[in-house]
Amino acid sequence: MAGARGAGGAAAATGARPGKRPGGPEAAPEPEESSLAGAPAPSLQEGSDSGLSESEESVFSGLEDSGSDSSEDDPAEEEEEVSSDEGHGGPEKTAGQQAATPSPSTEVARAQGCEEYAVDSSDEEDIRNTVGNVPLEWYDNFPHVGYDLDGRRIYKPLRTRDELDQFLDKMDNPDYWRTVQDRMTGHDVRLTDEQVALVRRLQRGQFGDVSFDPYEPAVDFFSGDLMIHPVTNRPADKRSFIPSLVEKEKVSRMVHAIKMGWIQPRRPREHSPSFYDLWAQEDPDAVLGRHKMHVPAPKLALPGHAESYNPPPEYLPSEEERLAWEQQEPGERKLNFLPRKFPSLRAVPAYGRFIQERFERCLDLYLCPRQRKMRVNVDPEDLIPKLPQPRDLQPFPTCQALVYKGHSDLIRCLSVSPEGQWLASGSDDGSVRLWEVATARCMRTVPVGGRGRRGLSAAPEPSPGGPAGGGRHGSAAECLCRPRGARRAACPLAGGLRGGAAGGPAAAHLPREGPVTQVIWHGRGDYMAVVLAAAGHTQVLIHQLSRRRSQSPFRRSHGQVQRVAFHPVRPFLLVASQRSVRVYHLLRQELTKKLRPNCKWVSSLAVHPAGDNIICGSYDSKLVWFDLDLSCEPYRVLRHHRKALRAVAFHTRYPLFASGSDDGSVIVCHGMVYNDLLQNPLLVPVKVLRGHTLTRDLGVLDVAFHPTQPW
């Protein structure tokens, strides 16, 4: 713009200056000529500005001035004025010539005008969109978002990027976090450091201006000290000491209204309490009509014959009854007075407890509940689950049939042969006895030596020929086998063999490190698991009879092992520690499931014949039922015993399970497991068997079911 002004000034400087305005400052043309480098200066004979009127010149001057913001353009404006004055004194041209011959200053002004909008730094939000305050939601269904200064549409940018492109842009573009979308144009705008700092200050609740100090010291312009000179020396207004005519008119109107009685003076209200009968009959229009749950007042009992001044003789108390009434507490007495007999009504004295009874009556009215509480009438019998009768769940053990006598000390464990003909028992007297189940006759006594806790288990041999039993005593495990014919039979186990006499049992001896606490056989009879009371990962050992080898299946210990059990169907081994039961897959050699009994100390373990449910007994008098297909938490916890549980067992054929406790009782329960997976097991206690005597605070130590009979 300065160059355009300089061109006008140079053209005006070549001729005379008769039309110069009075009082205008003179400007040197040299700086303006240097600003138009390479532009030919028009001569006076061309008449570039001589044909323009004063109003037309002001139009171009306005375009030139709009692009200039500095004070250095004043000399150029002076030259422009001089050029305009000289043009008025020259020959006039026609309108067609003016339109056909544009002036150089006009072309420069137009060129500078285009650059002006390109470098505009105004405070508007976006100068390209001129929709004003029109809501941008109106353009949602249109391809454009507004109009520019020339009236052309501003089309929305094509956004074909999906979420994956946005994520890649977020990872690759370091300025992604400071890029926002301009709603006026739809384009992405990168925020500058100053704008980001402003946003952060506003998010922290600070002021937008950095230089603003909210804690700057306050300037006390006025003080309480008496000053000689006033703060302002402005003279008082005239209305401050002349009565107001408007107020005079308002006062006169109010006086007239008071005289006419239109305005009454305010009288003090009398705060008199309002009383109403709290227990009156309910009326929708009365005060009590608001109380929808109104409770009527409790009524006094009507007086009887005992309160008469001349009661019948049977209501008068005797001397003993009067003394007994006086010795009773006031709350225990039937009547709060003693009936008396008077000859006439005039002889009745004043009632001494009249004030006390009135006071108690007022308390009854005052403390009576005003709200009726709706109680749910539930029959307690409905809360008890509907269980079948025990007589409908027979057969199950009901009475004592046989007693097997022969041991001289505590019997620690029992084991029944798979066909149910033989019963083996281990005792603290150091012997293992073989009984005939049907006759309770002791068929064989095998001394194992030593004292302490011993046990055994029985399972069928791989080939038919009779029962085989495994025993434990001290720190060794033994396998007792029935001889076949006249030959001496020995169990093929490494670790020492003990031969038996002809017709007697043969034993295989396995010395171990630590006392043996349990021996359990696999259902096929080829594997035997032994639990040792030792620390470390060798607490559980598995022996295979056919291959004459033993192995420790675990590499590390998860606590003291209490019981182990083989799964009847799957290759699972269940290991019960003090606080949990772990199920291991023997083929995959991995942990399949961990059950949480939620009891202090697990004492016993039993697996259902189907293999989907197990029960655990604990020393804190709990019997826990687990459904392996349902959850790792207990399905049901039974607390029928009063003392610690020592043993639990399932029946192999009937839906029965039993638990023995130190309280000397055996509880037999009906446990039906359905084939339908959507139906939960049915657990019903059916019988409590008593009769065991407690010895050294120990009751029932082991429980075993007959394999075929409900015994």
From TrEMBL:
Gene: DGAT1
Function, as annotated: Component of the PeBoW complex, which is required for maturation of 28S and 5.8S ribosomal RNAs and formation of the 60S ribosome.
Record organism: Canis lupus familiaris
Protein name: Ribosome biogenesis protein BOP1
Keywords: Nucleus, Repeat, Ribosome biogenesis, rRNA processing, WD repeat
Transmembrane segments annotated in the record for this chain: none
Sequence ranges of Low complexity compositional bias: 34-53
Family assignment from sequence similarity: Belongs to the WD repeat BOP1/ERB1 family.
Family matches, as Pfam families: BOP1NT, WD40
SUPFAM superfamilies: WD40 repeat-like
